[in-house]
């Protein structure tokens, strides 16, 4: 510049393509590095989460097994954080203690039932001998005889329950349809005597893993219960339904049914509806059935059969249950 005027201009031409390429490559490297770092972090987080949660899943499965009656289920305290390993050991100790207490309870019930059966049998014999010396139709003797027989049934059921809780299931691949047909046929004379229509329908064949003796006992208890409460002229329908994971036997009656509150308690030991106390029974039959079925991975559920009645579903698995 001279005297404030621009005399000349210098133009510098410097190419920037190479610089831009280097900057772009740098940003690309940074982006790729961040993406790889995120992938590594996510992978590590997933692996760490799996490592932490695996013992929790195993503990949850063992807890469920114990809740449904498989008391020998335990947790391997070999993986996961130290805190979870300590929790697994504590859980196993608790399960051992619970199993010991239940075993002592079962032994007591079995011993008491067994020890009381002989004196009760002698007492019933004396009642029968006494009845021979009294006028025929004596109401007091009849009442004592009835109560004695009821007590004998309760003791038999208690012994059966104690044995059921201690017995391993003898699982076999079983065709459920002929087994169910056999039990229905054995109860049909009683149904005919009461004027109840006992009907079997459903699939022509359906296999499942079950203990035939336990399943037969459970069906006997359920069908007996249905016939007790179904009035003459009504149906008791037994239906075999094969499913993807289980085969079910549904026993639906047209009796008075149960309320929602009663449905929550049905199957509990010694529980009987206050509306049906005059019906014979010990209140242990369905409890025994539940224990027998649970030992083989089966179950028994109850629901209302509209407009009135009870629907009982006995389920046994299609696949062989894994031994805990």
Protein architecture, described:
57% of the residues lie in helices and 13% in strands. By secondary structure, it is α+β, with helices and mostly antiparallel strands. It folds into 2 domains: 19-166, Orthogonal Bundle (Helix Hairpins), CATH 1.10.287.130; 172-317, 2-Layer Sandwich (Heat Shock Protein 90), CATH 3.30.565.10. Helix 3 (139-166) packs parallel to helix 7. The longest helix has 52 residues, at 82-133. The model has no long low-confidence stretch (mean pLDDT 81). This is histidine kinase. Residues 111-320 form the Histidine kinase domain. GO terms for molecular function: phosphorelay sensor kinase activity. Its EC number is 2.7.13.3.
- Percentage of β-strand residues: 5-15%
- Structural domains: how many: 2
Q: How many beta-strand segments?
A: 7
- Category by helix and strand content: alpha+beta
- What percentage of residues falls in helices of 4 or more residues? 55-70%
**How are helices and strands ordered from N to C?**
HHHEHEEHEEHHEE
CATH superfamily of the largest domain: Signal transduction histidine kinase, dimerisation/phosphotransfer (DHp) domain
Largest sheet: 5 strands, mixed
Average pLDDT: 81
Instruction: Report the uncertain regions.
Output: none
Characterize the overall form: elongated
Q: Give me the Rg, rounded.
A: 35 Å
């Amino acid at each position: 510049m001279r005297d404030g005027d621009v005399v000349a201009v210098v133009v510098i031409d410097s190419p920037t393509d190479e610089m831009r390429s280097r900057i772009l490559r740098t940003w690309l490297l940074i982006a790729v590095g961040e993406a790889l770092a995120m992938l590594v972090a996510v992978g590590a987080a997933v692996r760490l989460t799996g490592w932490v949660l695996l013992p929790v899943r195993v503990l949850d499965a063992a807890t469920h097994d114990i809740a449904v009656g498989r008391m020998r289920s335990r947790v391997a305290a070999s993986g996961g954080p130290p805190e979870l390993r300590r929790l697994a050991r504590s859980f196993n100790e608790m399960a051992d203690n619970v199993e010991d207490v239940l075993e002592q309870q079962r032994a007591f019930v079995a011993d008491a039932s067994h020890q009381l059966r002989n004196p009760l049998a002698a007492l019933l014999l004396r009642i029968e001998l006494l009845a021979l010396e009294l006028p025929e139709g004596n109401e007091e003797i009849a009442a004592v005889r009835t109560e004695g027989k009821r007590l004998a049934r309760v003791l038999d059921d208690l012994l059966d329950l104690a044995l059921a809780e201690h017995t391993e299931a003898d699982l076999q691949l079983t065709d459920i349809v002929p087994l169910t047909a056999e039990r229905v046929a054995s109860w049909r004379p009683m149904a005919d005597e009461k004027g109840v229509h006992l009907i079997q329908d459903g699939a022509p064949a359906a296999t499942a893993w079950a203990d035939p003796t336990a399943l037969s006992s459970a069906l006997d208890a359920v069908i007996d219960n249905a016939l007790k409460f179904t009035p003459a002229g009504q149906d008791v329908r037994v239906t075999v339904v094969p499913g993807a994971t289980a085969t079910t036997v549904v026993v639906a009656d047209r009796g008075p049914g149960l309320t929602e509150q009663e449905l929550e308690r049905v199957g509990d030991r010694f529980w009987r509806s206050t509306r049906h106390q005059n019906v014979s029974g010990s209140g242990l039959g369905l409890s025994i059935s539940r224990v027998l079925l649970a030992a083989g991975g089966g179950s028994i559920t109850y629901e209302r059969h509209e407009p009135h009645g009870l629907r009982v579903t006995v389920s046994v698995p299609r696949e062989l249950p894994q031994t805990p």
